[in-house]
Input
Amino acid sequence: MIITVDTNIIFSGLVNTESAIGDLLINSDDFFKFYSCAYMRYEISKHWKKLLKVSKLSEEDLNESKYRLYRKINFIREDLIPTDLWKFAETVVANIDVDDIDFIAINEFLNAHLWTGDKELYNGLKNIGYIKVLNTSELIELRKTLR
Output
């Protein structure tokens, strides 16, 4: 199953690879293929100092976390996504959070399910009938059923 991973999930996984999120990202090869936008790597580098502070990890340990997660996530260049999918994504997130347009566009491009920890995004998508979205609890349960 193809899963699009949004920012807060990747940040959480980086901060604690031993968490449920870290476990899902690192130990789900048999069940899920994870994707995110290429821009995410820039976001991680932009917020690196904050990630170091929040995680309380050493630079070396946080780099190791990044290495472990990057091996599990396929990053999609945004320019590969057709214009019509960008327009559709824009209408989906227009009244929720336009900053999440990339994740919906990639999700549609890959015919995937978006994994988010953003409750406002999750609830907003569900409220408009967008069903290709999962939270962490749902993904944990899904992996259990696939075993």
About this structure: Residues 2-146 form a domain with the Rossmann fold fold (CATH 3.40.50.1010). The beta strands are 2-5, 33-37, 73-76, 113-115, 133-134. The chain has one domain: 2-146. The first strand starts at residue 2 and ends at 5.
